[in-house]
Specification:
Helix content of chain A: 25-40%
Largest interface: A-B, 24 and 20 residues
CATH architecture of chain B: Orthogonal Bundle
CATH topology of chain B: MetI-like fold
CATH class of chain B: Mainly Alpha
CATH topology of the largest domain in chain A: Rossmann fold
Number of helices of chain B: 11
Largest sheet of chain B: none
Subcellular location (chain B): Cell membrane
Helix content of chain B: over 70%
CATH superfamily of chain B: MetI-like
Strand order of the largest sheet of chain A: 6-7-8-3-9-10
CATH architecture of the largest domain in chain A: 3-Layer(aba) Sandwich
Pfam family, one (chain B): BPD_transp_1
Radius of gyration of chain B: 22 Å
Organism (chain B): Streptosporangium sandarakinum
Radius of gyration of chain A: 27 Å
Shape of chain A: elongated
Number of domains of chain A: 2
Number of strands of chain B: 0
Strand content of chain A: 25-35%
CATH superfamily of the largest domain in chain A: P-loop containing nucleotide triphosphate hydrolases
Membrane topology (chain B): Multi-pass membrane protein
Distance between the termini of chain B: 35 Å
Number of domains of chain B: 1
Largest sheet of chain A: 6 strands, mixed
GO biological process, one term (chain B): transmembrane transport
Oligomer: heterodimer
Structural class of chain B: mainly alpha
CATH class of the largest domain in chain A: Alpha Beta
Number of strands of chain A: 23
Strand content of chain B: under 5%
Chain lengths: ~500, ~260
């Protein structure tokens, strides 16, 4: 519907846009995402008609857009500052655009009432903008923009001025309205969460160029440029060259990953923190500086895997907590099932499930499925089958077998270490080994940074729920080839 | 916490210094006697004389005509100039030139205008004073409105255009209402400045149509009379009213926006 072809714009020495081409479809919720100064706002202003490009073409439904002045374009913009007219009431603000079309008064009144009802501000019609709250102002701005029924609605950082609670509300509201009115939305934002949660497709901008255009999930799971891998979501990036389907990371050895790049190509390997599974060997000196109360001494000896989610049961029963190990690899993104293991046969599976769902607060498009196995404790194989993606990884078995055995021998802490050492031995216990440098818990997720010898920056690991890993623990990191994405450099 | 009383002394001294002459002037305007310096009882007779003085009445009418005309002219032109400077140029030189007449010495402006009028063979009269006052009034209006424009939100104008308003409609429906307090303040300033402007009026007025300050000047040349005091008191009253109205208006518009 909207075609942007080779648009460039320079401001003196600065190139704001360089050969940008995009194709935005009818009825789509499209996001332009990038850090500030990447040119996305310039593109928005070009579309609105406040800026003209140095070169390139923009067509709307096949007709040239650039030759039209701003006030003749069938495009409306919702300003970041909302730009409500302070000297007019809410109703007058909304009616402004219709009055400029010289529509009959009755029709204007009708449409204003209709749109104000739609955004839930019917009673505020007589107020002035400065008497409204931030969220209400935004609704007025939105109503004023959509009442003209534009072909295209541009939104400049629509949620940035709102506080967190109102943001979540408005996010849903925006999606609902977009669905209802069927207008094509183009949103500009520097906030990847905003883009991911709102948009059907996202164009990632960097330094005036489009890095990648994709759906949110694809953008997150299959970044095609180093910038996208680093900008969209947290990511661990490893430098090296493609080797044997994975990445030869030099001192780090060959790291598992996937990507159709020719052998030997210089590349980055991107591994999401929540895709890394942690195998905990405890603090070497058997001290528990962080949480001595929660982790009794035996915990340090028995290798544990990072718990995915805090189970109420395990908290209640300390002797379970020591020996229990839980799968680290929860799958925040899309289709993959989350393995939630419960070695101690739980009395109430429902409770565990609801806890997990409440905790999972990831950039998810679909809710992770929680595969629960209250009674599976005797069979390691069952545990493995719960994590199909792990089977593909080179670390196959090392973690899962340990888990299984751990689960099976939940009552016997002595058995678990042996089993896990056995399975971990051939590969040195994971893709990488390191030491936990820091553990923090927020948003229902534990963020663990692990210092790995031979890598300057720590590797970030995210685990659902509160973790029992402590600072200073020796750990092994596991991930499957599917979880590492090779990005050409 | 109480401040030491001593700190208030400079404050009161300043006010006494500023307002003693004015108080004396107002008091003397009610003098029954003929001397402007010796008070000899209360009387309103000088106000009566003032009302009967045809020269003063004529001067007052001339002044009001000039002030009203130049205010209208300078407000319209000054506002347009300010908008043009703020929105359509980035030239700092033009910006400075726009407000220069406000700080130019009156003498320079007066002589310059007189020479210019002579060069274009324009007759002198109220119209010439009116145009002359519009020149410096415009500079003040421009300065005031320009300041307000730099603080105004350009996204409002963009929003207006985005909603389908032509540039003209945008100016009248969005830009101007935003500027209204600044425009009003500029207009009041231009009016009060024009009413008591002497030097430029002295150069550009015709001898047959003197403005009030010129009339007062010629009267004072033969000595100050209580009549002058009465006139000054009236002018003072007008100035005070205007200042208070201006303050009220800005407070009103600020509470609205």
């Amino acid at each position: 519907m909207l075609q942007i072809t080779g648009v460039s714009r320079r401001f003196g020495e600065v190139t704001a846009l360089s050969e940008v081409s995009l194709d935005i479809r009818q009825g789509e919720f499209f996001a332009l995402l990038g850090p500030s100064g990447c040119g996305k706002t310039t593109l928005l202003r070009i579309l609105a008609g406040f800026e003209s490009p140095d070169s390139g073409a923009v067509t709307l439904d096949g007709a040239d857009l650039l030759s039209l002045p701003a006030h003749r374009r069938p495009i409306n913009l919702m300003f970041q500052s909302y730009a409500l007219f302070p000297h007019m009431t809410v109703a007058k603000n909304v009616a402004y655009g219709l009055e400029r079309e010289r529509l009959p008064r009755a029709e204007i009144r009708e449409r204003v009432e209709e749109v104000l009802a739609k955004v839930g501000l019917a009673e505020m019609a007589g107020r002035r903008p400065q008497q409204l709250s931030g969220g209400q102002r935004q609704r007025v701005a939105l109503a004023r923009a959509i009442v003209k029924r534009p072909r295209l609605l541009l939104l400049d950082e629509p949620l940035s001025a709102l506080d967190k609670k109102v943001r979540a509300e408005m996010q849903l509201e925006l999606k609902r309205l977009q669905h209802e009115v069927g207008i094509t939305f183009v949103v500009v934002t520097h906030d990847q969460e905003e883009a991911m949660s709102l948009a059907d497709r996202i164009a990632v901008f960097s330094a005036g160029r489009v890095e990648q255009v994709d759906e949110p999930v694809a953008l997150y799971e299959r970044p095609r440029t180093p910038f996208v891998a680093g900008f969209v979501g947290a990511s661990n990036l490893f430098e090296g060259a493609v080797h044997d389907g994975g990445l030869d990371g030099g001192a780090l050895g060959v790291l598992p990953g996937t990507g159709d790049l020719p052998e030997g190509t210089p590349a980055l390997l991107s591994v999401r923190p929540e895709r890394i599974r942690l195998e905990d060997f405890g603090v070497p000196d058997e001290e528990s500086p962080e949480e001595p109360a929660e982790s009794p001494e035996p915990a340090a000896e028995s290798p544990r895997e990072e718990p995915v989610s805090e189970k109420p049961e395990s908290v209640e029963e300390p002797e379970t907590a020591e020996s229990v190990e839980e799968a680290v690899s929860e799958e925040p993104v899309s289709e993959k099932p989350e393995s939630a293991e419960e070695p101690e046969s739980t009395e109430e599976p429902e409770t565990a499930e609801s806890v997990e769902e409440a905790v999972s607060e990831e950039p998810v498009s679909e809710k992770p499925e929680s595969a629960e196995e209250p009674e599976s404790t005797e069979e390691p194989e069952t545990a493995e089958s719960a994590e199909p993606e792990d089977a593909a990884g080179p670390s196959e078995g090392s973690g899962d077998a340990a888990e299984g055995s751990e689960g099976g021998s939940g009552d016997d802490p002595g058995e678990a270490p042996d089993r896990s050492k056995d399975s971990g031995a051939p590969e040195g216990g994971g893709v990488l080994r390191g030491k936990v440098a820091d553990v923090s818990f927020y948003g229902g997720v534990s963020h663990i940074s692990v210092v790995v010898p031979g890598r300057p920056a720590p590797v970030l690991v995210a685990a659902q729920g509160a973790t029992r890993v402590r600072t200073g623990s020796a750990v092994a990191l596991h991930w499957a080839a599917d979880d590492g994405v090779l990005v050409p450099q | 916490m109480r401040r030491p009383r001593l700190l208030y002394v400079p404050f009161w001294v300043t006010y006494v210094f500023l307002y003693t002459p004015i108080v004396v002037l107002v008091a003397m305007s009610f003098n029954a006697g003929k001397s402007p310096y010796v008070f000899a009882g209360f009387s309103l007779k000088w106000y009566g004389e003032l009302a009967g003085n045809a020269t003063i009445r004529e001067g007052l009418v001339n002044t009001l005509v000039v002030a009203a005309g130049s205010t209208v002219l300078s407000t319209v032109l000054g506002t347009l100039l300010a908008v043009g400077l703020a929105r359509h140029t980035r030239s700092r030189v033009l910006d400075a030139l726009g407000v220069l007449p406000a700080v130019l010495p009156d003498l320079v402006l007066g002589i310059g205008l007189l020479v210019f009028y002579a060069a274009v063979k324009m007759t002198l009269g109220l119209h010439s004073v009116l145009l002359a006052h519009a020149v410096f009034g415009m500079a003040f209006v421009t300065a005031v409105v320009r300041t307000r424009l730099t603080h105004a939100d350009t996204s409002l104008e963009e929003a207006s255009r985005d909603l389908g308003a032509t540039p003209l409609a945008t100016f009248f429906r969005v830009t101007l209402p935003q500027l209204a307090p600044g425009v009003a303040a500029g207009a009041l300033l231009a009016f009060t400045l024009s009413v008591d402007e002497f030097v430029i009026a002295f150069f550009t007025a015709a001898p047959t149509t003197p403005t009030l300050p010129i009339v007062i000047y010629s009267m004072v040349r033969f000595g100050v009379t209580p009549e002058i005091n009465a006139l000054a008191t009236l002018l003072l009253a007008v100035s005070f009213t205007v200042v208070i109205v201006a303050q009220r208006m800005t407070r009103l518009t600020e509470s609205l926006s």
